[in-house]
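Blackboard transcription, Thursday session:
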Amino acid sequence: EAGVAQSPRYKIIEKRQSVAFWCNPISGHATLYWYQQILGQGPKLLIQFQNNGVVDDSQLPKDRFSAERLKGVDSTLKIQPAKLEDSAVYLCASSARDRETQYFGPGTRLLVL
Amino acid sequence: GEDVEQSLFLSVREGDSSVINCTYTDSSSTYLYWYKQEPGAGLQLLTYIFSNMDMKQDQRLTVLLNKKDKHLSLRIADTQTGDSAIYFCAEHGSSNTGKLIFGQGTTLQVKP
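(Written on the board underneath:)
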């Protein structure tokens, strides 16, 4: 069974530019999560989708971050405009259902200069 | 509030046992998890324990859960150099959604 796929694996941009990350969850998984992991810390949830609906986006900085999961499968996370403090690893995870075991992708490493 | 605490660093010799500890504040989580993160990689699920269990063993891994003290530990028997990584414990916290609350991670260094 294929795992969670993410792209790109690495991205370097300048502040105030925009960037987008893509995630393809495990086939059949209804729940998809985006986490932000700053160097030296544990991941922190940005947004959770159940199918194509948002369950929790309370920690998403909505003035610059947006995410969508239009057909209940793939998801895109966008940052516009980026700030220096957005430098982090962005991890996508999926689970078969809400509150079940989450499986993580390899992450996208973002560096904002 | 929701909080998960871990010690930051553990160094052991190859062949010894490693014990990584974690404390948490919320007791409503049904499952508690251990994830492993190698350099430049995502999080790999190692094991999890149901909240009504005290212990779970899976090959070289033993998880102990003390609900009274809100303490979780991961024991790795016969630690190998390939076990060198960052280990995170995680729980769902008080939220009724799937959000995981992670500790800051314990870096395990295995010396040959």
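Lecturer's comment: The interface with chain B takes residues 4, 6, 31, 33, 35, 40-45, 48, 55-56, 91, 93, 95, 98-107, 109 of chain A (CB under 8 Å).
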